[in-house]
Specification:
Order of helices and strands: HEHHEHHH
Helix content: 55-70%
Strand content: under 5%
Distance between the termini: 33 Å
Number of helices: 6
Shape: globular
Largest sheet: 2 strands, antiparallel
Length: 155
């Protein structure tokens, strides 16, 4: 695939494992559901930011599984985002690197007590996730044609 992915394999953080089409389709459906939740203005900002993060992360996971790879690492979210960027490259790689900041926000929200997401952070996270979904969808459709018809974009 590429050297960076081979390095993650060598460290045991990625393994080759076939993914059935149903798994990829199910992950994608979860990403769409999360971005819809993130877009609901009636939800609290922390919940919306967490949902936006989940949408981007799950879309990245759908990319990874579409490539028949599975993440096996304690820092699995970080490795999932990095691997999806390594696979897709182009505009998605720097977007996912920037999206790592949302991972840190999510950690502070989930495991801390002081983080309160601002409306601007939520808007930014939702926009980032939508961009991730667009780029991930295009890659999955091209590289996993058997699921292309099921990989739709959010409303």
């Amino acid at each position: 695939m590429n050297e960076r992915i081979d390095n993650l394999r060598g460290m045991g953080r990625l393994v080759d494992e076939p993914a059935p089409d149903e798994e990829v389709i199910g992950l994608w459906a979860g990403a769409l559901e999360a971005i819809e939740d993130a877009s609901l203005s009636m939800r609290a900002p922390n919940r919306r930011l967490t949902a936006a993060y989940d949408a981007g992360r799950t879309a990245a996971l759908a990319v990874v599984r579409s490539a028949n790879l599975r993440v096996r690492a304690n820092n699995h979210h970080e490795v999932t985002l990095a691997t999806a960027g390594f696979l897709v490259q182009g505009a998605l790689e720097p977007l996912l690197q920037e999206f790592q900041e949302r991972r840190m926000d999510r950690i502070q929200i989930e495991y801390g007590w002081a983080k309160r997401a601002t409306d601007e952070e939520v808007r930014s996270a939702v926009a980032q996730s939508r961009a991730i979904l667009e780029l991930a969808a295009a890659w999955i459709r091209e590289h996993r044609r058997s699921v292309a018809a099921e990989i739709r974009l959010p409303a």
